[in-house]
Amino acid sequence: MSATAEDRYADFYARQLSSPTLAGIYQEVYGEDHPEELRPFGFVTRTDLARFAELLDLRPGTFLVDLGCGRGGPGIALARAAGAGLLGLDPLAVAVEGARELSVSLGFPEARFAVGGFTATGLEPGSCDAVLSVDALWMVWNKRAAFAEVARVLRPGGRFVFSTWEPSYVDHAGLLAAAGFTVTAREEAQRWLERQLLVYELVRARATALEGELGPGASVLLEEARDTPAALPSTPRVIVAATKTG
């Protein structure tokens, strides 16, 4: 993500929780499948979280790293349920601070969060058991370097699970194989397209309220809602799991 994009997302994160209109849109579209208590920005669902848990197969005492963690909700939920340790990394300091606050409010204050990214985690080689990324990888331009870094920090046999949008020109499976991974699952997220399109429709319809609540940060959301729908049918939202070989 460029510095300019980071700044724009920083504006959004600073005011996201002050937008009842945005919260209401996600609740309206996803209903009981929306993990409202995790304060997510995006399209992650309770169904997604259950699948992540299956694919990660975390055990008590293992160590999970959540890359592009944002406010940290999915990683907090998964690590807390499994009795695992957690480190969340995000390039935005405002998101990291929000993740720290959320981990305390959810009763998981031992979780750690820091500024960092896919290609520069600052972790020791082989220091984690699993890596998670929820809907953040699409913003990483150098995916080859990102996958190499994930492979470096995972122990042999460690699991990498992520959700992202997969355009036809991105070969995630090939990039993972080149980094030393074996892909064990690749599937489209359940009902992702119809619900994501409806979110964007409601965002466009409620633009005035969102601009009033989100201020400058609304521009990121409104541009996404305007420009993205046409590409979605050929850009599936996928869940991928891979195991580090060797």
Portion of residues within helices:
40-55%
Distance between the first and last residues' Cα: 31 Å
Task: Give me the strand/helix succession.
Answer: HHHEHEHEEHEHEHHHE
- Strands side by side in the biggest sheet: 3-2-1-4-5-7-6
The figure for the number of domains is 1
Q: What general form does the structure show? A: globular
Unreliable segments of 5+ consecutive residues: 1-5
Task: Describe the structure using short key phrases.
Rossmann fold, 44% helix, disordered N terminus, globular, 7-stranded mixed sheet, alpha/beta, 246 residues, 7 strands
What does this structure look like?
It is a single chain. This protein is of the alpha/beta class and 246 residues long. It has a single domain (3-155, 172-244), classed as Rossmann fold, CATH 3.40.50.150. It has 10 helices and 7 strands. It has helices at 3-15, 20-30, 46-56, 73-82, 93-105, 143-153, 172-178, 192-205, 207-214, 218-227; strands at residues 63-67, 85-90, 112-115, 128-134, 154-165, 181-188, 237-244. Strands 3-2-1-4-5-7-6 form a 7-stranded mixed beta sheet, sandwiched between helices. Strand 1, helix 4 and strand 2 (85-90) form a beta-alpha-beta unit. Helix 1 crosses helix 10 (218-227) and helix 6 crosses helix 7. The radius of gyration is 17 Å and the shape is globular. The two termini are 31 Å apart.
